[in-house]
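Q: My collaborator sent me two sequences in one message, no labels, and asked for predicted structures for both. Can we handle them in order? The first one she listed is below.
A: Yes, handling them in the order given. First sequence, followed by its structure tokens:
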Amino acid sequence: MVVRPITADDLPGAVALERALVAAQVGQVRTVADLPDDDQVFVERLTRRLDDGGLWWVAEEGGRIVGGVSVQRPGPSLLAHVGSLGIGVHPDVQGRGVGRQLMVAAMQAARAAGVERLELGVRADNPRAIRLYESLGFVTEGVRARFVRLPDGRYVDDHLMVCWLEPRG
């Protein structure tokens, strides 16, 4: 498996990954209804995101995109030190270290790009992800109670986790 920066050629694979993640509904905040029906429309959306200049990597195995991670930076200059991380690993390869490799790559590149505060949101019912993030230095900074409402009406809290990549000053 190789972790590398994403290219435009990877976007159809990124679409397939997103569809698999949403279908599995583990740790997601989106449903199938939230995704474009047409793959070309989906690729165009991702192309705009790629053109926005965020930091974005994929994990590729056997020519297939099996994971992705991105760090987006907010626009305001007073928040230039902040990065917001999103990650997804294909259900077929979860538990094999793909997420850790993606996280390490993202954290190294974010640090090199001047990100000091790296944050992410994770559902409280995703303990595997929470353990991974904690093992990499993330701490829970806050909890958004009943943030996600599942199709069956149950609520799930969301944890805001943060890792300081540089000393606070």
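Q: And the one she listed second?
A: Here it is, processed independently of the first:
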Amino acid sequence: MGHSQLDALSIARQAEDKAARFYTEAAEKCSDPRGKNLFLQLAEFERTHSKKLDQLIDSLSVSEGYVEYDGTELVRAEIETPAGVVAESGDVLDIISQAIEAERNAKETYEKLAQETDDPLGKDMFNKLAQEEAQHERLLNDQFYSLSNLGYWVWGE
């Protein structure tokens, strides 16, 4: 286990913490309950990633090797949209744009870590993390498109 990989994991964990805070703040700025729900779930998701990376860093630091990661699922909530919900502000579209970029960067980080890891358990974990970030990126792209062109969230539909 190279020192540089521990450094990369530490940076990835900090990025997950930052993403969790970002999504929590985004939920507060959201007027639509569907957007709020999505952002709060994404915040929880990133906290789960952060905890898992903590566990991995601890394990690798004492030479116990990689840890297993089963993956995490988003729950597509059925959310009634209250009548007369105001359209989201341009701020929310900016937030989604930033989130898309952050998810893409996270996906690329985990893909790189997967390539640099010979351990099958480590490779599996990093690939799962990369797939989850890619799923978030696609989901956020869908929201961005729908909000930009149709004026509503497609999450929770």
